Amino acid sequence: MDFMPWFLLLMLSYVQANLVRVDPLVLISNQGLVRGHKAADGDYSIFLGIPYAKVDVNNPFSTATDPIAFPEIIHDAVDEVRCPQTSSSVGEQTLNCLRLNIYVPSAASSRNPMPVLVWIHGGDFATGSASDYGVKNIVRHGVLVVTMNYRLGPYGFLCLDVPTASGNQGLRDQYKALSWIRNNIASFGGNPYNVTIAGQDAGATSVLLQLYSDNEKLFHKVIIESGTPQSEGMFVNADVEAAIKLAVHLGLNTTETEEAIQFLTKTSPDLVVAAAKELELQLKPCRERSFSGISNFVESDPYSLTNKKKVRNTPIMIGNTNKEKKSLSADYFSTDPFYEKLKSNFNLDEAQIEKAAKNVRHFYIGDSSLSAEVASELQDFESDFVYNHPSQRTITQLLDENAGKIYEYLFSYSGELEDGAEHSSELNYLFETAGGSDRTEEEQLMVDRITTLWTNFVKFGNPTPKSTDLIPTIWEPVTADTRPVLVLDKDVRLDSRIERQRMAYWDLFFTTYGQYNFIARETCVFKDYDD
């Protein structure tokens, strides 16, 4: 008899008899034995690059299939790979990239299953990977962490008019990962029925799109950091000519989508992702075309997305940094940013755009000229339009859909700079970064606070189940009538309706112009922040 089944049976018997993980050796159903390694910086084990799905080599733009069994008796989970992208970050890039990393506290076992945090990386749906985050400060709180790769750019978000590449494959990859986690995480000592999905930027948008999809709900709580489908640049109208544009750019003379797909399938992924960047294609989540026998992942525009059944009673944490768009480009002041912003987002005639832009400009900078002297006000304008107000609209919608308790935060800690926290700032404290061992006492306090709040939410659905010396404030959830906001700065305090006047302004603006947004394909009703 073949040695492999006997060996697997022996190991399975050992695991079941002892009711603990064989650490760092784990048996995965239908795949085989996987071996991780002990972490050097904490009391946990690391499993890197475990396949959760397989890209179809005959059409890497289509839906992924289930992973195959490991060819080895024991698969060493030590590979860190990235999906094809133009990022210069270190790491092998391959189409065989649908992998996840699992970080397991040593105390986890079948008798002591740990709550699970699934992190979906950001990167504008074009860059990033599962290996971009050091998780030791989360794992030490007794939370098992999973990070995932998903297809990016042309491989993840070609939204075409053919059923073989209808769009949003990257989102489908994420769902395949969640399905794998539901079926297998118990083998690692995780609780498949206490799963929180979280993400930042494109990852946060992904979290909401998973919540709104019609697929089975494979998670129980969500964390949304600085991103929603309504945020500028997070959702696009489908470019059904994108495959043809790519193929022509790479040398094929064609007007047929299927021919273009066949050509791109045989082309080096490095060339395909480089061409997408050179052509400045906007390959993001989209509203998919409908095809017989194909289930759509996204069926409406971001202003019309809803799924009351899945949203109902789901605990939610959502927030932003206080200076999301702190970095303005060198040529920012050479054009009228108010005019350009509205022109690129709303289907208005020239007179309407000029009138609306003048109104927005007067609200933010009055009669001041565009210069560095009003940089802070311009940062607020960009932050409000791209991140802050979309988050407030999302909170209002979630309340209408009877979500569970919703906890809103504002991360404003910027250390000694004291000039505001820009986009992604909170990640420097939530995760371990290069130079983390050189943190000041104050910075370490922020690490302790944010990881405690986030992991309390993962464990209990409540970030402050009790007041402590570390966090002496009870974080109250928002309601239809109140909007408490936990401000994370040098101190931790509870505020209410941050930037109320600015949010009320954008309520009025979207009541007037929201139906003309290029992405809003249906007339929308925008509820006021003050309601």
TrEMBL record:
One Pfam family per UniProt: COesterase
Stretch forming the signal peptide: 1-17
Gene Ontology molecular function: carboxylic ester hydrolase activity
Domain Carboxylesterase type B: 25-506
InterPro entries noted in UniProt: AB_hydrolase_fold, CarbesteraseB
Keyword Signal found: yes
Gene3D superfamilies in alphabetical order: alpha/beta hydrolase
Protein name as annotated: Carboxylesterase ae18
Keywords: Glycoprotein, Hydrolase, Serine esterase, Signal
The family this protein is said to belong to: Belongs to the type-B carboxylesterase/lipase family.
Superkingdom of origin organism: Eukaryota
